[in-house]
Structure prediction request, 479 residues.
Amino acid sequence: MVRILGLAALSAAAAGGATAQVEGPAVASPASFPAVARGLDPYADPPAYPSTYRALQAPPTAIINAVILTAAGPRIDGGTVLMREGRIEAVGRDVAVPTDARVIDAVGRWVTPGIIDPHAHIGAGSSPGAAGGDSSNESGPNPGGVWVEHSVWPQDPMFERALAAGVVTMQILPGSSNMFNGRTVVLRNVEALSPQAMKFPDARQGLKMACGENPSSGGAGKPGTRAGAMMGYRNTFIAAAAYAARWDAYRRKMAAGERADPPGRDLTLETVAGALKGDIPVHIHCYRADEMLQMIDLSHEFGFRIAAFHHALEAFKIAPELVREGVPVVTWAGDWSGYKMEAYDSIMENAAFIEAAGGVAALHSDDVMLMQHLNHEAGRAMTAGREAGLQTTPEQAIRWITLNPARVLGLDDRTGSLEPGKIADVIVWSADPFSVYSAPDLVFMDGAQVHDRAAPAAAPRSDFELGHVRRPGVAETPR
Prediction:
């Protein structure tokens, strides 16, 4: 497979080719031209809706005598994890514990990195559902300009339950009912009043696309066939390339001191153009092997990079092709196949086959209940891999819910494993984390303890669950 036509060629064609240099009188400085309103300029800096996340503060902490799965190397028995100033300072069997550190004796217990869920709808597809219904699926034929963070409800009580299950970072995606569904957001699982206060600093937004049964339903404005959906993808990429060319031409004229009128701003084409330029990674909801191969061909035609195939239940059929293309797989253990036709060939060892082929496999929830059991999902996929003769190990399985999701999100240099210098997101498990009898005893984010299973029940962090308390001295209204 070869790259047929990239954005540079499309942009040049749409812009009409290079412009000749012509001598003439001096022109006015661009600074003297009327400025484009910030909301009308897709290149405005700083970007809109920036992260206001602030890392938690905590004293130095040492977890000692633990069985450690670092997600970056072999298992360590009787090891120590030292956290200081929000980072992992040291990991190993011979770590010196400083006198100013809080010491947690984890003898008989296991320690892993915090869980990262690369595909969730929590907060947008919140629970309980709001009167307006699901806030992750936007209507219309092509709502690619949606930013799902604008639907996130920080008071969703499921955030707290996910934290108790060890989920510290998550990518929230729009739904899959359209060909182009909008931008994703990566959140830290902290108490906040706004989504911006949860946004993982400097984490890139992604573009959520979808193929298969969901966007090809033939609903209002939607294609009725998979062929129609492919035409829709291609037409949108062509329009996005032309849109990017218009803005690039405008910026070149302004930089040269020429007077120019800015193009109109289109949020959908802006997002798709960002994918073509490589600024926005593309996450594709896709089940069947044949459709994944066609989406790879689509990426070659227009020159964009696929960050991951999500769900990807037939990925095991094309594992060598996915490895060759460098496309990760975000999937389930998959022991509940057949809920629709394109999920019919689901197998539990899907992640294990991708791992065995040399690819990147990650497990995701896509569901508020499964989000609380991602460690069990990894355990089931690991066991299925062993039963298939793949000799899957715990060191591999822990990567499916920690380091590999970080790779999918482009954050593996900062999080996802217990290595010096990385963010101190750590779980102390009561037992082997892949056992159904295990649960997180302690959860740390930025080196700060954020969950203690043994602590007395605290007031819920969601206003939804606080209830209504009658003010003192106010008589109850008779009924």
Summary: Confidence is low (pLDDT under 50) at residues 1-32. The chain is about 25% helix and 20% strand. The first strand starts at residue 61 and ends at 68. The CA atoms of residues 84 and 286 lie 41 Å apart.
